[in-house]
Amino acid sequence: MNIGDKAPEILGKDQNGKEIRLSDFAGKKLVLYFYPKDNTSGCTAEACSIRDSYADLKKAGYAVVGVSVDSAASHLKFIEKQSLPFDLIADTDHALVEAMGVWGEKSMYGRKYMGTFRTTFIIDETGVITHIFLPKAIKTKEHGAQILAL
Questions:
Q1: Range of 79's domain?
Q2: For residue 108, what pLDDT is reported?
């Protein structure tokens, strides 16, 4: 997906099994952020940064949805442990990460594996992608402020 593309209508199911659609956010800007794994240090720092900026993001007209390939049960624990005020999509079938182009080969300590690239898409009120934060641009501890600075 690129700037100017329309995001997919069906985003996936949240931590409660409820289907989340792009049209649910009509008239709002959407922060759709992808992260590798619940309860890891970088992903927790990013989620908490967005949580801490959530009131300001809402005031600025944004809705927020996080996405990882973790299970709904894992998301429920992550939301509870970190007091996250937004939904997390459990993309266990990899449909959304693949559609958005954020799933691919990664490398850590010389080991190659498939995973999610930390990426944030800003989607306007009509469902069009207006900004993309690529992995190297995201500062996990400051990501909420990075979004607000747009």
A1: 10-148
A2: 87
Paired strand residues for 63: 30
| Active site amino acids | 43
**How many domains does one find in the chain?**
1
Element holding 147 (H helix, E strand): helix 143-148
Q: Give the amino acid at 41.
A: S
Q: What is the DSSP string of 23-65?
A: GGGTTSEEEEEE-S-TTSHHHHHHHHHHHHTHHHHHHTTEEEE
- pTM as predicted: 0.97
Cα separation of 29 and 31, whole Å? 7
Give the integer Cα–Cα distance in Å for 148 and 115: 27
CA distances from 61 to 3, 26, 41, 50, 74 (A): 19, 11, 28, 14, 28
Residue 62 lies in a domain: yes
